Fold:
Amino acid sequence: MIPLVLYVLLASTMFTIGLYGLLTQRNGIKLMMCVEILLNSANINLVAFSAYLPNVNGQVFALFSIALAAAEAGVGFAILIVLYRLYGTIELDNINALRW
Amino acid sequence: MYQDYAYLIVGLPILAFVLTIFLGWHLPKGGGFITVLATFAGFILSLGIFNEIYPDGGIVHQSMHWFASFNAGILIDPLAIVMLLMVTFVCTMIHTYALGYMDGDPGLARYFAEAGLFTAAMLGLVFSDNLLQLFIFWELVGLCSYLLIGFWYRKPSAASAAKKAFLVTRVGDVMFLAGIILLYTNMVKLNLTLPDGAYLLQFQTIYDSLTLIPPDQLTWIAVLLFGGAVGKSGQFPLHVWLPDAMEGPTTVSAMIHAATMVTAGVYLVARMFPLFYAAPNALMVVAYVGGFTALFAATMGLVMFDIKRVLAYSTVSQLGYMMAGLGVGAAVGASAVGVSIFHLIGHSFFKALLFLCAGSVIHAVGTNDMREMGGVLKSMKWTGLTMLAGSLTLAGFPLTTGFFSKDEVIVTAYEHGALGMGWLPYIFAIVAALLTAIYAFRLWFLTFDGEPRSDYKKHESPWIMLGPLVILAIFALFMGMPSQENFYDYVGNNFEHYGVDFEELAVIGGHHVEHGAHAVHEPFIIKILPIIIGVGGILIAALFYSRWKRFDPSMITSERDPLRHILLKRYYQNEIYTLWFAEKVVYGIALFSNMIDLKIIDGTVNKISAILVGFGGTLRKVQTGVIQNYITAIVLGLAVLLILIQLASMGVAI
Structure:
């Protein structure tokens, strides 16, 4: 059996990659992808701990989390499509009509 | 049995007000008959109550809770019942007359509604059983006078006269309110344990605790209350609104001058007479202000050419008599109230009569200016004769009502002098009596005698107007003779119902003279002097102004005569009040306050808001709207938090 610490390492690596992407990227779709990576790193953690504790709660939570991520992606991409129609771009730096 | 319905005396006119103001437009004559009937019903009720309480000398007192230390109630004692009878009777006459006089005016319904409310307010003022309730009705009277003086509000002079009446009486009202507050604080300080159903500002309670209040406080309270009366009753120096109040319809002038408004001030002083009696300095002020006003106004009445203005100054002068009559009560005690109120009642009959007659003349002739009248008697027999009756009694012709009442005031003033308390009120009163007779008959002769001096319409007024005139004339001539002695006793002993001990009050007040009704012997000449003066004044007026004239006014005075000029300009009082006081002093204060308001008060508020807005403007830069910035902040914060937790778990003191 693969030791638990490897799962946690994988999850924290993915989390860091996602966070780095969020902080550096300006493209809407890339941001959405980074958010997905973040969510999935958490899912890996949930499933891994669930398997090591003999307890099914973590897997149930992971399922919830995946459904939530799907919904969030739906809304997020819809917004991005509308933004693209309006501005012709999804570079978020250019979308600042309500900014001071 | 009638006394159970005492509240209806005020309730019915208020009902009439509500009915006429909402439904008057749809009724013939603006629903005026409702107001007339309501007032007349009030008269019948008052008469019924009078019949019940007069024989055994009782009083009616009903009271109910109103907040913790106040009450609302009805108090009908001799002083109140005579006022109720007078107000309801005279107002019935005036409202009936107004049915004819105001006919065809587009605001007829509004007139009768406001007149009904005016009557109700005055009646409520009279039968209040505590000072606060009296003050509320007092203000209502002021409001109604404002509405009615400005009845023809499209006329600028009427609108400004209404404002003037309201503002000038307000000066007095503020003093009145200050007096009430001062009295109240003093009463609270006494820590009285009141019996059931007694309240702090109830008259009975006030009378009972007069001996406990410090005398200097009493003097201040009395002077402040008198300040209210000065404003309402048009005493010098706040009389300026009364002559201007002529801008309203003549019936309104009649109501204000005879029954409903100006008598309120005299009534207040009469009602609080025990308090004034315990404060002799205040009573002295009342006597001197009253006496001076009587003379001062009479001099101006001599030279006016506007028929209503002469009557207005006559009212101011007669009110001065009433005040003086109360003021000289320092010499004769509570019987002064009887004397003064008798003059008030008599005056309201003949002054209502005179105003209504003047209204009848103005209605027919179409002008107020006596120089354009003359010979009106030929076309208006009834008006002329009733006005003659009014003028005779105003002049104090022997055996008329005005003769008895004024004579009694003058005699009381004489006693005041003879007891060494100052002769000035007597001198003022006696000289003013001469002037009164002269201006009363100057008015009558100029209007009704001689030849027409302009081309005016000649017709008599309708009977609905003449009827009240005749009734009032009968009362003005003959009411005094049969009733006077009983009246003095009945009203003069008013305060016995409350157990007011005037001897004791005299001790606090520091009166050092021996009291007792008519302790002074009056020489024969003093007794007949009022008769000589009254008749003499009439003769002087006849010599100058009637068809038998031997002299012409131009012989003793000319256009350039400075004295005449001063009188015609009314002692430059308007100029002093408006040009000097209003435009210099008040405007200066207003500018100063405006500056304080703009610079200091508004300035502070604006500065505070400017600081906050600036702070917010700086802070909003933090909200960049760029998600990456937020995430950076979150991650950094989280990192710091984690490090801190780690350090804490390693036992490092943070």
Residues 573-619 of chain B form the longest helix (47 residues). The longest strand of chain B covers residues 60-66. DSSP finds 26 helices and two strands in chain B.
